[in-house]
TrEMBL record:
Organism in which the protein naturally occurs: Novosphingobium subterraneum
Top enzyme class: hydrolase
Keywords from the named record: Cell wall biogenesis/degradation, Hydrolase
Name of protein: N-acetylmuramoyl-L-alanine amidase
MF terms in GO: N-acetylmuramoyl-L-alanine amidase activity
The keyword Transcription regulation is assigned to this record: no
Pfam families cross-referenced by the UniProt entry: Amidase_2, SH3_3
Xref: InterPro entries: Amidase/PGRP_sf, Amidase_domain, NAMLAA_amidase_2, SH3-like_bac-type
Higher taxonomy: Bacteria, Pseudomonadati, Pseudomonadota, Alphaproteobacteria, Sphingomonadales
The keyword GTP-binding belongs to this UniProt entry's keyword annotation: no
Top-rank taxon, per record: Bacteria
Entry's EC annotation: 3.5.1.28
Length: 280
């Protein structure tokens, strides 16, 4: 699929995608947005979320688009206008991400509830497409053991990749973050079922395929290098933001790396969470 954006409207095969417009906008962006924020809806269909954004009962939330499980997209706010998706938020010195970012909502239930025969969404329906994981900031129920999260179908993932690629043709998009990055205490979306490392690689692209296999730490507060793939393992070293590492292996959301010194020579080996590692 290949999308094109014309005058702030997303087009598929020269036709605008389905529009369910929300009145909840902040007017024109003060400057072209350079960040994409990924959310999950914590609900059912994309249409149900888009209809809520358009409802007169809803006076304080919206997003630019909602992407359904089959990859279909509904646009709710013109890309040239501010949408109310981020709430109280901050990232790399910016406060209030609404005026700096484009918000993409993905139809997904997020954290599920365990039952006798499996995992269930907030509507009480059993969900079969489940990823067992622990949110890096702690699960919404306060636990730190694996729970069920609804998986993101391949068609949906690929649609969001194509969307961000189209956005980059028009806007200076340089970063992709989750709602749980910019509001980590309040929010858990898009959650551990969303492979953010792979998504960034696919959506941002531009990697030198002939270059060295090197990753860069992206964490303003530093990133713990641990002795094993999990927060229960001891911290070997605190890696500074911008540190370069060589990926060695993968275990779930954790990547085994060897740190590189200033001369690019291997130093210590350990494990880091993939969310904070840029492999582009």
């Amino acid at each position: 699929m290949a999308y094109v954006i014309k005058n702030g409207i997303l087009n598929d095969n020269s036709n605008p995608v389905r529009q369910i417009r929300s009145r909840n906008t902040g007017g024109a962006f003060p400057a072209p947005p350079g960040i994409v924020v990924i959310h999950f809806t914590a609900g059912g269909s994309a249409a149900s979320s888009a209809n809520w954004f358009a409802s007169r009962e809803n006076t304080n939330s919206s997003a630019h688009v909602v992407v359904d499980r089959d990859g279909s997209i509904i646009q709710c706010v013109n890309f040239n206008e501010v949408a109310w998706h981020a709430g109280k938020s901050s990232w790399r010195g910016l406060a209030g991400l609404n005026k700096h970012s484009i918000g993409i909502e993905i139809a997904n239930w997020g954290a599920l509830r365990g039952g006798a025969n499996g995992w269930y969404n907030a509507a009480g329906q059993k969900v079969d497409n489940v990823v067992m994981a622990v949110h890096r900031n702690g699960n919404p129920d306060g636990s730190r053991t694996p729970i069920g999260w609804e998986a993101y179908p391949a068609a949906q993932f690929e649609a969001v990749v194509a969307l961000v690629r189209a956005l980059r043709e028009v806007y200076p998009i340089a970063e992709i973050v989750g709602h749980d990055d910019i509001a980590p205490v309040r929010k858990s979306d898009p959650g551990p079922a969303f492979d953010m490392v792979r998504f960034r690689q696919r959506a941002l692209g531009g990697r030198d395929q002939n270059g060295a296999n090197v990753g860069v730490v992206r964490s303003p507060g530093g990133l713990n290098l641990r002795s094993g793939p999990g927060t229960n393992f001891a911290v070997v070293q605190l890696l500074a933001d911008g540190s370069k590492v060589m990926p060695m292996g993968v275990n779930g959301s954790w990547i085994e790396v060897t740190t590189l010194d200033a001369a690019g020579k291997p130093s210590k080996t350990g494990w880091v969470h993939s969310h904070y590692l840029d492999l582009d």
